[in-house]
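User: These chains co-purify. Model them together.
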Amino acid sequence: MSTFDATGSDARRPFTGRRARPGDLLLQGVAALAALGATVLVVLIAYKVVDGARLSLSTFGLGFLTHTVWDPVHGRFGAAEFLGDTALTSIGALVLATPLALGIALFLTELAPRWVRGPVTALVETLAAIPSVVIGLWGILVLGPVMRDHVIPALHSVLGFIPLFGPASTGSTVFTAIIVLTIMILPIVSSISRELFLGVPAELKEAAFGLGATRWEVVRGVMFPYARGGVAAAMILGLGRAVGEAIAVAQVIGAFDNGFSWNLGNPGDTLAAKIALDYQGATTKLEISSLFYLGVILLVFSLVVNLLAQWIVRRVSRRQGLAR
Amino acid sequence: MSTFESSPSPLTRPQDRLRRRRATSRGMELLAWLAAAIAVAILGVVVYSVARRGASQLNLDLITKAPVPFAIGNVKQGLANAFVGSLVLVALAAAMALPVGILVAIYLNEFAPGPVKSAVSLVLDVLNGIPSIVIAIFVFGLLVVGHGQSGLAGSFALATLMLPLVARATMEVLALVPDSLREASLGLGVPRWRTTLSIVLPQTIGGVITGAVLAVARIAGETAPLLFTSSIVGNAVEWNPTKALQSVPVAIWELSESPTPADHARAWAAALVLLLFILCASLGARWLASRSRRKLGRATR
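Assistant: Joint model of the two components:
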């Protein structure tokens, strides 16, 4: 009887030792060890980063988050300015990337001729493969000067009454960082949105078309509501990526940490970029520990972002599972 | 029909409204086309910028000659130390991450009970979401403080980034292997470990290679994890991973911060080589993936 037990649903259950052979135990043991190792690794990352920040945590406490000065000479450190610039760059990138990504996803699922879809999908995803240091190199030497000489002055002359669009002082600006981040998160948001749009049941769309809706009305009335939760998750993941990006931002943003400004034409500094730029410059224990504190903020944020996105996806898929 | 409409003003007759709705739809379609065109144009502009500036600097010296500090005049110099360093770092990282990642995937797909599977999958997602700069300071705190920088520390940081990518890719292909194959093998009395290693795993080899190539392409361009772990280096070519090794991304990063145009030129050339490698690897992997998926799809039918 027991010889047939290893079929069907039982085939995936772990061996309980009933008829386990040494080879089975060995493979299962080694594989389980690897999985345990991956789990321990994540715990170890959290522990080590918090451990490195301990001195700064006990010195500044939560006041670190609201304190604006980063002054290695007098040993006073605060992250408020980096938090401000991080919010400005990542939200700015999200604002630019989301409509673009939705447009790309719609193009790829609804509009493009069949022979165009494959190549364009591959090209957009290739954008994600470009290393951040190369995008940063392009950002600092090509995009930065163009932004300073043309884009920012043009926006300033038209929209100058909004504090965001002030004049540009140097080639390293927050705005350049926003564009660079937009390029980097565009593929993530668009590829997730594309999959969501592909998942919209054809009956729903056909029903709307049958009622005489135009294509845009189908998109707005059927596809967007259906994919809303998933798009939110995609945006959150894109935001997480933008917040965590260090290298490209550090190259283009100008490493300016003497006060936050709303003007996108000014240089600035984000959490991740600050860590990357100070990798060799930090000398005192307190400064190194404060850099770890910035890392703690990033780590907590990335955890929240991932769990939130997972939660949304799970909720949405359960609801849609019930709807069918 | 129009008789039922409340107060049909002469300006919004039904056919006018239909025309307007169609125009809106057309306009939105145009915007979607435009969005796709912008994305492709961005890729084109970035690749073209790198190619145009890098190509003129591209010669064998870049790969065979070490950099010369304070070079005056037309000295032949390259970034041999960076290319050798990247080779060693990426090879070591792959050697660490590939077996562990594949084993994790085997455990989750073939052995783990449901709750454990979803818990560890979540852990992998979390690991994948941790910014590389945080991985960098983690490895700095774990291996560099007190011991100094080394290629091993750098490749460990890269392996940490690579692990979730490999595990996830392997899990995806393992899930495609039909259960009937496992059942047939187990039914013939083949032990489970041999079923897994010599029946199930060979089916996935194409997908695993694809995942591995994509992961290698991803980490070959990573700068942040190496800044803290393997960046304080000399100009000599170094193969020994117990010393700090230069790498291509870190070299580009340093040269891009330099004020000299000659350094920028070398940065563009190195960026071009890196970009070519990554684009070839990821496009090749994609092609391989579509091929092996088609094959697996046929097997299931």
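Chain B has a mean pLDDT of 86.
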